[in-house]
Amino acid sequence: MPVDVIMPALGMAQDTGKVLRWLKQDGASVVKGEPLLEVETDKVTVEIEAPANGTLAGLAVPEGAEVPVGSVIAFVLVDGEQGAAAPAPPRRPLASPKARRLAEARGVDLAAVAGSGPGGAVVAGDIAAGGPEPAPAVGSVWRVMAERMTRAWQEIPQFVLTRDVDARRLLHRHEGVSVTDLLVEASARALARHPRLTASWHDGGLVAGTGVDVGVAVATADALVVPVIHGADRLTLADISARRRQLAEAARAGTLRPEDVQGGTFTISNLGMYGVDAFQAIVNPPQAAILAVGRIVERPVAIDGALAARPVLTLTLSFDHRVVDGARGAEFLDTLASLVEAGEEG
User: What is the rounded CA–CA span in Å between residue 227 and residue 250?
Assistant: First the structure.
């Protein structure tokens, strides 16, 4: 039987995805795992891979179209199969975000508007009777990220805990790996001891976490994305470092796969390389906590009644109070700080 190619869901709040570019055309031979198309979701631009060996057929969605997640957008015919054209999935009319907002505010049916934009997309000028819509100042990935963070700030009751840690042993192990790698390792070990931190709040109740899957925030030209190091508590430091570098490179090149950004249960955001001493990060839903990391700086520290210079790192944890209370958050931070200061080999 033909194998469906579907629009993936990469987040609990995602409703639709946009087909940016088909990398293979109707009738092309494909190999399982080979990239078929680029899709833009509410998190990031990713490549969708062929689900099986065979012939790509029934391309039902043109480039630029936005369709509901779970929709069949094509299928792969395996070994000699013949297939009829796939039915076109239901989708919203092509329109720019500004045009959608104007149409909603003015009660205009987008399906009844002749679009003058690329691919017949409706732009603001088609509704407002002005000229063509000016080029947007930001990309849609950035816009969606901004909307998600706004909702997170408004809807999640967040609290913050901060602690300075002695970074001497962290620096001692720094050669060959990054500070972020070391913090992924320490966070993964702390999360394994405090599994409540991997849970989430959904539909009025707690949902247990599926594992220790640590996301690392990466800045790209278009937005901030969070690829995930899955099963980080089972990896060596060398494996964590290699995987983080691989994901960061894929994020900046726009070649992340759906599974690279799915399933994160905790996030680390490190701005120390920009000279930031400390900052507060916004919880990345549906996760329950995010670690914000500043730079390592030498500070005067009282030791046995005398002052001494020590490298200090400030760790700031933001929590979803629906999942984690102050005591549990403090226990987790204490474990994390102890692991960082002990500098034990994982």
Answer: 9
Domain holding 192: CATH number? 3.30.559.10
Catalytic (active site) residue 172: no
Comparing 40-44, 254-258, 288-292, 339-343, the range with the smallest average pLDDT is 40-44
- The CATH number assigned to the domain holding 115 equals 4.10.320
Whether 55 maps to a domain, the answer reads: yes
- Contacts of residue 228, defined as CB under 8 A and 6 or more positions apart, other chains included, come to 213, 214, 215, 216, 247, 260, 261, 262, 263, 264
Once rounded to an integer, what is the mean pLDDT over residues 239-243? 97
Pick the catalytic residue from 4, 174, 222, 321. 321
Task: Supply the pLDDT for residue 85.
Answer: 44
| 286 within a domain of the structure (yes/no) | yes
Q: Is 321 a catalytic residue?
A: yes
Q: Whole-angstrom Cα distance, residue 269 to residue 272?
A: 9
Answer yes or no: do 53 and 129 share one domain. no
